[in-house]
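Bump. Still looking for Aromatic compound dioxygenase structure tokens.
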Amino acid sequence: MHSSERKFDLSLTDKVIAATGPNAHPRLAQVMPSLVRHLHDFAREVNLTVDEWTTAIELINECGRMSNDRRNETQLLCDILGLETLVDEITANIVSSASVSGTSTPSAILGPFYRHDAPLLPNGSSIVKDLTPAVPWYEQAVADSAYITGRVLSHNPLFPDMPPTPLRNAIVDVWHTAPNGLYEQQDPSQPDMNLRGRFATDAEGRYAFYALRPVAYPIPDDGPAGKFLALLDRHPHRPGHIHFIVSATGHRTLTTQIFDDRDEYIEKDSVFAVKDDLVVHFEPREQDPQAKWTLNYEFVLEAGMMGL
Ligand SMILES: [Fe+2]
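Sorry for the wait, here they are.
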């Protein structure tokens, strides 16, 4: 007999699972037995006390109280535990054989700073708004100015040997932080929708815009997720990255990030989102007063996955 069987009434777990009724939501009926077993086993394994459980409840409650349309602390808590990266990977495995085989561009987590309805801008325009020498991070913005271009391509998993074909009118939705490491909604000094934009690809599937090379930033560490990181003796930094949602009619929407290979945190992302295929290298750009760097990046979407 195991020591846990002597110490605890294991029938409790079975009773909780058996309490689910015949008309329960089908997916919940499927997943809850596993959740209850893991949760109970965890509590027994670590000898979770009432004080510790109360502290954990307060942590989750505090995340909820702090969350609003500009900040999602509960999601941040999941992110530092690697849960968003894991469910993103699981979802990709379920819906796409191509992303697993490396044919289409890998996904990465959405993160808590996406805003809907970024302005639809003409190709070749800039997502850097109102940049003047009065802006505190002006010099770094000039030093990191970048022209980012590439194509959005379609891959059809029914014809795996066919090369990807260009997608016209795909939407490339992009967002990143200012050089101070803050997204515009976190920073009252930035114009609304700064460093955000949407671009429609042309007949060759091409998109192009001016932006900035991304910088590392700490995830917000003034809330419960930050306190939790400190208790774990962990740093809060994310490597410099640019977020994308790329969509096209008749294709699986791609949510991803690209990571600048110059970054010292590339191997130690606080939310564990870096994938090798998403690490990019910016090249110097000549004879362009608007950009010191350039990047060419192609997104490959998977055809035939409507509504996902
Ligand atoms: Fe981010």
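The chain is about 30% helix and 20% strand.

Edit: fixed formatting.
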